[in-house]
Amino acid sequence: MENTQGLFLELLHSGLWGTSPNPAHFVHADWDAVFKLADIQTVGTIVLDGVALLPKDVHPPLGIKMRRIGTMQQVERTNALHRKTLAAIHATLAKEGIREVYMKGQMAGMRYPNPLHRQPGDIDFAVARQDFPKALQALSSIGKVDFGVACEHHGIAWINGIVVEPHYKVHTFQRPSTDRAMQAMFEEVFPRHLTSINMDGCDLPSFPPTFESVFLVSHMVNHVYSEGLGLRQIVDYAMFLHQCGKDIVVERHTDYLRRMRMHRAWRLFACICHRYLGAELPAFVEPFSRREKDMAQRLFDDVMRVGNFGRGEYVFQYGGLADALRNYLWVVGRCFSLYFVCPSEARWWIVSKPYRFFKKLRGGKQ
Q1: What does the pLDDT read at residue 318?
Q2: Order of all β-strands in the sheet with 157-159
Q3: Distance between CA atoms of 51 and 58, rounded to whole angstroms?
Q4: In this model, does residue 356 exceed pLDDT 90?
Q5: DSSP structural state of residue 157
Q6: If 153 and its partner were Cys, which of 103, 169, 241, 342 is the partner (CB 3.0–4.6 Å)?
Q7: Residues 211, 109: contact at Cβ < 8 Å?
Q8: Helix or strand or coil: residue 146?
């Protein structure tokens, strides 16, 4: 497994930065194991980009290679459909006078060497809370909306077969004061201080770099304790730092992290980006201490074992109370073993998860 992980990381590094992997390392590669790990981390197409930089005599067997090329082509088609759908959503909301901001997904993918090779998920965007009902109505004109669903911070719609999550909060955090801090920070930047990313000729609103950095960190913290953090999210942050790190306003960034109680978490994620993914960090990031490196190693080991949404260890099931209890115990275990990443959120997860579960059973919003 250690050798497989090394080969996987070498190919991922090559796919991200265009560096040539060492052919000698791949003479006896277990390609099934390498791509299984890539799938657990949802970065299979980036790994295939790394394979393309190897001499053909050490490529995977033809059958494996053709399957992976087929998967890559499907990822490209899905991403192209996502981009078309984003443009349609933006035009529909603009027509109704609704301001929105897009998060993660295709916005993060635009920073990849080949934006069509980031594994797609859902489409997420946020609007002002008072515009949320109007946004759902607008989306219903171009797709299907479940008006009966209002989760912790978003609704749900389906447009062109793609899951779309319109948010009235960027996220719900477990510690109440942290949750309020994020909402206040969001209101500071939305909508007056948004930037934009041009995607296929359409300027889509996005967060300013300083806020986006902290938002991406907070999103990863949530994944650590909820359903497992994968390398895809960390790669998103590595590519963000590579392209946008120089645009971060340091004093404001530090203040945001303090308000979110996530300064340590940010340091650990940045350490992983640098040590294991080869990302060049902004000049303001101070050298990591031995303790930080040790904690980053523990977190990285968990990421490699558990993977995106727990694909490598435990995938949540929702069949009833027994599944709910198993899910809760898994989360509690992570709160203890990974407490060091973000202690304030780890403590509150143990309380907030059953609270939201039973609140949902009573028919209220999560």
Answers
A1: 78
A2: 100-103, 123-127, 162-167, 157-159, 144-145
A3: 9
A4: no
A5: E
A6: 169
A7: no
A8: coil
List Cβ neighbours of 214 (8 Å cut-off, separation of 6 or more).
185, 253, 256, 257, 260, 262, 266
Tell which residue, 346, 312, 313, has the closest CA to residue 332: 346
Q: Among candidates 133, 55, 47, which has minimal Cα distance to 98?
A: 133
The tokens describing 182, both together, are 């994020």
Separation CA 156–CA 169 (nearest Å): 13
Full 3-state SS string of 105-145: HHHHHCCCCCHHHCCCCCEEEEECHHHHHHHHHHHCCCCEE
Angstrom CA distances, 362 to 94, 322, 357, stand at 37, 18, 9
Helix (H) and strand (E) counts in the chain: 14, 7
Contact assessment for residue 175 and residue 226, using Cβ atoms and an 8 Å cutoff: no
pLDDT of residue 267: 98
- pLDDT category of residue 79 using cuts at 50, 70 and 90: very high
What does the alpha-carbon distance between residue 261 and residue 128 come to, in Å, rounded to a whole number?
Answer: 24
Give the C-alpha separation, 79 to 76, whole Å: 5
Task: Give the integer Cα–Cα distance in Å for 287 and 322.
Answer: 46
For residue 183, what are its two tokens? 């909402």
Q: Are 101 and 72 in contact (CB under 8 A)?
A: no
Q: How far is residue 73 from each of residues 44, 201, 233, measured CA to CA in Å?
A: 12, 23, 22
0.85 exceeded by pTM: yes
pLDDT tens digits for 180-212? 999 999 999 999 999 999 999 999 999 999 999
Q: How many residues comprise the chain? A: 366
- Name the CA radius of gyration of the chain, rounded: 20
Share of the chain above pLDDT 90, in %: 84
Phi-psi region of 296 (alpha: psi -120 to 50; beta: other; left: phi over 0): alpha
Query: Contact, 231 vs 303, CB < 8 A?
Result: yes
